[in-house]
């Protein structure tokens, strides 16, 4: 929708990020300044002008996709002396290219920020998260409530001066483990919740109150007999229905509160946090290396992809140091091999469970799982675990492919398998996976029941998909050909030949088809990976691995990958020491499963209750990542 | 909406259903027989139909790199020189690199001198907290902690059974060679022999039959040095006692360069060797300074 009569807007939208930053500073000379801190990028915007600047960035400069919104607490961190809270925004153009990073600072005590929900609706859940975990109050946010924690939670846990119940030290490794490591269990020292505090204004009798009045305020409670809708003369009740958290079709402990008019959904609010463990706080206590296996536990269906995003973010920081050699070519080949296999696993799983939600109970999913099992067998033999792969390292990977995928019998386990690795891979990529995908298409794509259930249901327009910060198959199913592998390429993707899968209908069936096409594209990539594996044989993949105690130069980095579920980003800040730090100061996960839920209400409104289940399935969430 | 797509889908289901029986016929109904070792056929790349494993009647052997709760390598119990000796030197790297911090090590100290001894007094792993990431095994410089293949650890009481102590964690080195033959060989190559690094050092020092002439010479040199160090210590103690007896001329004593007699001279070496050592030290210092400058840039 480029206005051809206004050429200067075209140039604004067309230039590089540097041009855009120049224009931004020219347009707002007093409100915008370059972020001059060592290792930081982008601009700092004064909080008063934030909304205005954001509008300019979105509408005039063309950065229409707000990827990540997060807050950082700079308290006594040693490098930037004044204490403050900082909001960090990463905006992208859906036509591709790198991020425009803009930040805004506020006082820690005051902690007020204008909400950007009026500019990007995708900021909704992310701002609520920043309020919940960091205590930034967003003025103008339509529904500023805690999202991952409950209202009776004391404090904002990602603040640096907040200590958890089993607090031991600010950072790992803990001194109590060695050399005088006399073991104790944390719960022996803090028995039965004696260490829990509540905010002063909370009424503890609320603990027995299950009405959740605040939440239902906007809904009205239960059956509202006074409100009667009139559809063709038929009287119906307005009813509030809770779905979940313990509901088999919510893919975990996820909850939706729906307002129904008969069978039709008139309003839907996602409620989450039942699996919350404050992954980011754990990540800030950890060293950089410690976090790699923790990323496995985010989206546990595709742990290889999670590893990749995180190591890419930290490698950006490490590259600023003196002692750094980038990963070898074979390392990148192995990473892409693993990540593409993971994408196939993820989509097989997503389609399978979406079909469960549609009522095709477990027959298709088991056919898909059979192929998934082989891929997981491969992961197990190479990385050591089927799902918690923990395969990638800073500058390399855990190990090269073994010669043979061989299991070793012992007294209890005697069923032995033994394959040549390359033969196994070649057969899998050339024969088995394509066969499975073809069978899937033969089995389901033309099925009339699926078409009747899926076509035209859960509609999301392209404009809305961008505006709601949807990513992955949800975005591409709405006709936006945005794939991080192409839009902002990383690893060896620029030299690989593949197409971005895209469908234009914006409904559930389009998302299903995007996943199927994407699996075909993954196979296409894998076929190009096989010869690369052959001719890089012998190249080292571990020689550049960072040492266990290596420190990371100060600065910020945002590493993002196209994971199966969508755009997975890691925002990492290293600070604290003058030059380098062993622990991340800030570790933020831009979780696609979480942010893709922002448009769930929009997609479900006007649909039937039975469709809501399938719409959720078509988004494809994993609660380990949603709740973090 | 003529039902063709639906019928095609049902045909796929029927095909899958029949395939299991076709497979049974192909293998003469022996597919699940315990007598015949047909497991590879069933799980092989050629197989069709059901390919499930009948756990717990059948248990899959684990691939070498499979990682589950770690164990501590100890010398074989029938080892000639050091039966049952811990490979662990309690350096603490595994405890530091452990992401959930589930490893607890008590370093042992020599009862007489109080100096640390390279073996753990106690070693605990809280297996409830262990996340099976394998970092401890990956970063251990002595190959002393390895990931196990025994995954059936369920018990009825988590409060008493799930903190593994050294006794429960220790497994013979030959067990590691059994569960991971390829990797054990690779690691031995990197170490320079099947034995523990320290045992190899010990052997080179002259404890074993494999000692070479060169090793013997190095050992005599080292003995001479030890003797010299002991003599120097005694001399220093004597000097200290003397200075304590007459505390006035301390500054003078420090300012005065040490006399180059047997007792004070640090190593009983000739001038040439001393010069070489000094030069080497200066070179190292210069290299360090250069490196620091480089990293400052």
Plain-language structure description:
The complex is a heterodimer of chains A (628) and B (297). Chain A is α+β, with helices and mostly antiparallel strands and 628 residues long. Chain A folds into two domains: 7-139, Beta Polymerase, domain 2, CATH 3.30.460.80; 279-626, Cytochrome-c3 Hydrogenase, chain B (Orthogonal Bundle), CATH 1.10.645. Chain A has 21 helices and 22 strands. In chain A, strands 1-2-5-4-3 form a five-stranded mixed sheet. In chain A, strands 8-9-12-13 form a four-stranded antiparallel sheet. A three-stranded antiparallel sheet of chain A has the order 19-20-22. In chain A, strand 10 (246-247) and strand 11 form a beta hairpin. Chain B is α+β, with helices and mostly antiparallel strands and 297 residues long. Chain B folds into three domains: 1-59, no CATH class; 68-206, Alpha-Beta Plaits; 213-281. Chain B has a three-stranded mixed sheet. In chain B, strand 3 (103-109) and strand 4 form a beta hairpin. In chain B, helix 7 (173-179) crosses helix 8. The radius of gyration of chain B is 32 Å and the shape is elongated. The N and C termini of chain B lie far apart (71 Å). Classes of the chains: A alpha+beta (628), B alpha+beta (297). The interface between A and B is large, with 70 and 66 residues. Strand 16 of chain A pairs antiparallel with strand 1 (62-63) of chain B, so a sheet runs across the interface.
């Amino acid at each position: 929708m480029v206005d051809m009569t206004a050429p200067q807007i075209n140039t604004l939208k067309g230039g590089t990020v540097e041009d855009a930053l120049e224009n931004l500073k020219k347009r707002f000379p007093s409100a915008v300044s370059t972020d001059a801190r060592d290792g930081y990028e982008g601009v700092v915007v004064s909080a008063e002008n934030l909304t205005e600047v954001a509008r300019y960035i979105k509408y005039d400069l063309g950065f229409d996709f707000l990827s990540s919104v997060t807050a950082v607490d700079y308290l006594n961190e040693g490098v930037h002396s004044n204490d403050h809270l900082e909001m960090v925004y990463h905006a992208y153009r859906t036509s591709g290219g790198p991020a425009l990073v803009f930040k805004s600072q506020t006082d820690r005590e005051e902690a007020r920020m204008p909400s950007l929900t009026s500019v990007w609706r995708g900021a909704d859940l992310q701002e609520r998260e920043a309020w919940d975990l960091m205590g930034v109050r967003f003025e103008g946010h339509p529904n500023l409530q805690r999202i991952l924690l409950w209202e009776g939670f004391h404090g904002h846990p990602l603040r640096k001066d907040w200590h958890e119940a089993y607090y031991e030290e600010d950072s790992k490794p803990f001194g109590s483990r060695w050399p005088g490591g006399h073991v104790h269990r944390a719960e022996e020292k803090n028995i039965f919740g004696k260490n829990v505090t509540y905010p002063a204004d909370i009424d503890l009798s609320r603990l027995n109150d299950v009405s959740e009045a605040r939440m239902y305020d906007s809904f009205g409670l239960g059956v509202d007999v006074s409100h009667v809708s009139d559809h063709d003369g038929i009287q119906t009740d307005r009813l509030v229905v809770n779905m979940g958290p313990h509901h088999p079709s919510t893919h975990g402990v996820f909850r939706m509160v729906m307002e129904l008019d008969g069978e039709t959904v008139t309003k839907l609010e996602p409620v989450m946090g039942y699996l919350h463990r404050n992954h980011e706080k754990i990540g800030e206590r950890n060293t950089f290396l410690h976090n790699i296996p923790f990323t496995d536990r985010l989206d546990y269906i595709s742990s290889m992809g999670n590893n990749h995003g995180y190591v890419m973010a930290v490698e950006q920081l490490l590259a600023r140091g003196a002692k750094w050699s980038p990963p070898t070519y074979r390392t990148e080949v192995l990473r892409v091999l693993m990540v593409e296999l993971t994408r196939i696993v993820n989509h097989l799983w997503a389609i399978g469970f979406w079909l469960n939600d549609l009522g095709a109970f477990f027959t298709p999913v088991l056919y898909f799982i059979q192929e998934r099992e082989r891929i997981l067998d491969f992961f197990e033999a190479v990385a050591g675990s089927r799902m918690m792969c923990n395969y990638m390292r800073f500058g390399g990977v855990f190990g090269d492919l073994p010669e043979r995928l061989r299991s070793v019998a012992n007294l209890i386990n005697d069923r032995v398998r033994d394959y040549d690795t390359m033969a196994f891979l070649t057969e899998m990529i050339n024969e088995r996976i394509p066969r499975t995908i073809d069978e899937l298409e033969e089995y389901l794509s033309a099925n009339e029941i699926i078409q009747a259930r899926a076509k035209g249901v859960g509609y999301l327009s392209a404009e809305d998909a961008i505006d709601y910060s949807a990513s992955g198959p949800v975005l591409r199913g709405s006709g936006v050909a945005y794939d991080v592998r192409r839009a902002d390429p990383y690893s060896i993707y620029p030299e690989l030949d593949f197409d971005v899968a895209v469908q234009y209908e914006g409904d559930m069936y389009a998302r299903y088809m995007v996943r199927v096409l994407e699996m075909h594209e993954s196979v296409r990539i894998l076929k190009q990976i096989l010869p690369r594996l052959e001719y890089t044989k012998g190249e080292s993949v571990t020689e550049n691995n960072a040492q266990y105690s290596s420190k990371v130069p100060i600065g910020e980095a945002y590493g993002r990958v196209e994971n199966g579920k969508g755009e997975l980003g890691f925002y990492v800040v290293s600070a604290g020491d003058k030059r380098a730090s062993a622990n991340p100061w800030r570790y933020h996960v831009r979780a696609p499963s979480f942010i893709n839920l922002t448009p769930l209400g929009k997609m479900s409104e006007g649909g039937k209750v039975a469709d809501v289940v399938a719409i959720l399935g078509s988004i494809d969430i994993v609660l380990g990542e949603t709740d973090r | 909406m003529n039902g063709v797509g639906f019928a095609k889908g049902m045909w796929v289901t029927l095909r899958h259903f029949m395939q299991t029986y076709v497979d049974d016929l192909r293998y003469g109904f022996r597919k699940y027989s315990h007598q015949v070792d047909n497991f590879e056929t069933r799980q092989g790349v050629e197989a069709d139909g059901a390919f499930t494993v009948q756990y717990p009647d059948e248990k899959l052997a684990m691939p070498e790199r499979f990682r589950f709760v770690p164990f501590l390598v100890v010398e074989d119990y029938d080892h000639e020189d050091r039966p049952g000796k811990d490979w662990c030197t309690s350096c603490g790297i595994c405890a530091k690199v452990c992401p959930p911090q589930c490893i607890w090590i008590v370093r042992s100290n020599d009862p007489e001198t109080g100096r640390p001894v390279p073996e753990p007094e106690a070693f605990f792993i809280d297996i409830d907290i262990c996340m099976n990431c394998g970092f401890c095994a990956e970063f251990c410089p002595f190959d002393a902690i390895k990931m196990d293949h025994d995954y059936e650890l369920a018990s009825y009481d988590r409060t008493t059974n799930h903190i593994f102590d050294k006794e429960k964690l220790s497994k013979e080195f030959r067990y590691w060679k059994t569960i991971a033959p390829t990797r054990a060989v690779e690691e031995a190559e990197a170490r320079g022999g099947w034995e523990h690094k320290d045992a190899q050092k010990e052997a080179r020092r002259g404890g074993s039959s494999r000692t070479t002439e060169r090793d013997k010479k190095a050992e005599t040199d080292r003995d001479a040095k030890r003797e010299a160090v002991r003599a120097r210590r005694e001399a220093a103690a004597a000097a200290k006692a003397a200075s304590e007896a007459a505390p006035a001329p301390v500054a003078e004593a420090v300012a005065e360069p040490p006399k180059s007699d047997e007792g004070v001279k640090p190593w009983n070496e000739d001038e040439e060797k001393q010069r070489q050592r000094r030069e080497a030290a200066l070179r190292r210092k210069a290299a360090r300074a250069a490196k620091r400058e480089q990293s400052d840039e």
